[in-house]
Amino acid sequence: MSIVFIGGGNMATAMLGGMLQQGFAANELHVVEPDAARREQLQTDFGVGAWALDDPLPDCDIVILAVKPQQLAAVAKARAAELAGRLVISIAAGIRMADLQRWLKCEAPNGPARLVRVMPNTPALVRAGVSGAWLGPHALAEDQAQVDRILRSVGSVVWVEEETRLDAITAISGSGPAYVFHFIESLCQAAELQGFDAATARQLAYGTFEGAVRLALDSHDDAATLREKVTSKGGTTAAALNKMAELGVQAAIVAGAQAARARATELADELGRDS
Ligand SMILES: NC(=O)C1=CN([C@@H]2O[C@H](COP(=O)(O)OP(=O)(O)OC[C@H]3O[C@@H](n4cnc5c(N)ncnc54)[C@H](OP(=O)(O)O)[C@@H]3O)[C@@H](O)[C@H]2O)C=CC1
Ligand SMILES: O=C(O)[C@@H]1CCC=N1
């Protein structure tokens, strides 16, 4: 299975890194990327084929559109003829199937691109990704199997029945790693404010996160019960959690995810309109 990523940025890099660790061969993976330094980096780090924009599209079974949402209309329109009849995966946040179909001229004579929308996340790099996926109307059952194989090679996948669910997945697991990193950053900052050097702060904060996540994954208890087991009545954790509740930490996380979802819809409206 030969796969071309169009766009060799953060998310393509994460997926490529994970796929190479999980049985994909470097010679079946290619990236089209405008930046020469980035192409060289991808070649050096992964041994994949890295191509400039004016190179012909490498022969491939699957194309993954991995450019920013703001770049997607131009890229899809410019590549519509090359992508006709192929299995095309868009990982762009927000951008709707109807717009992709229009940009890719899915009424083209040599057959419409078979489109699948996917929302991956960057832990794909360490094969701990979580992806959402939705099959477009022209995609076939064997396309779903191929996409499923790619996504499972870098983590787990949730297939959704309705396209709008992808915006909800974007808000939780697509953007979610950033929420978690923000929490880790904050715990490091708290440790440094207690007088620890950066390395020790990192050890304390990262180790705590890793331990807590492993415990949660291995436990039959839900997260609320595990939280209660740390929280002694009248103790230190209660003092911390009361302060966090007073400052609205949980409400802020829920509202943040809602803002991410709203932004996905907004991006789709902004970028799909009149294009
Ligand atoms: N980052 C993440 O965690 C996630 C991102 N996504 C989605 O993945 C997509 C890519 O995001 P991300 O990797 O973060 O973005 P990046 O900006 O890191 O990567 C996009 C890359 O595409 C390049 N590019 C621009 N124009 C073209 C072109 N015509 N042909 C080929 N490549 C081009 C860009 O170059 P240049 O910078 O020079 O423009 C850049 O290197 C987005 O649509 C995003 O919504 C989905 C899930 C998670
Ligand atoms: O921030 C973004 O828009 C992209 C999509 C999900 C994660 N990063």
Descriptive report:
This protein is of the alpha/beta class. The chain has two domains: 3-166, Rossmann fold (3-Layer(aba) Sandwich), CATH 3.40.50; 176-263, ProC C-terminal domain-like (ProC C-terminal domain-like fold). It is built from twelve helices and eight strands. It has an eight-stranded mixed sheet with strand order 3-2-1-4-5-6-7-8, with helices on both faces. Strand 2, helix 2 (36-46) and strand 3 form a beta-alpha-beta unit. The protein starts with a strand and ends with a helix. The mean pLDDT is 96. The protein binds NADPH dihydro-nicotinamide-adenine-dinucleotide phosphate and (2S)-3,4-dihydro-2H-pyrrole-2-carboxylic acid. The site of (2S)-3,4-dihydro-2H-pyrrole-2-carboxylic acid (A1CAB) has 4 residues, from helix 7. This is Pyrroline-5-carboxylate reductase. One of its GO terms (cellular component) is cytoplasm. Its EC number is 1.5.1.2.
What is the name of the CATH topology of the largest domain? Rossmann fold
In the sheet with the most strands, the strands line up as 3-2-1-4-5-6-7-8
Number of helices: 12
Share of helix, binned: 40-55%
The arrangement of helices and strands along the chain is EHEHEEHHEHEEHEHHHHHH
Portion in strands: 5-15%
Largest sheet: 8 strands, mixed
Quickly name the level 1 CATH class of the largest domain. Alpha Beta
Binding site for NADP(+): 6-11, 66-69
Catalytic activity: L-proline + NAD(+) = (S)-1-pyrroline-5-carboxylate + NADH + 2 H(+); L-proline + NADP(+) = (S)-1-pyrroline-5-carboxylate + NADPH + 2 H(+)
GO molecular function, one term: pyrroline-5-carboxylate reductase activity
GO cellular component, one term: cytoplasm
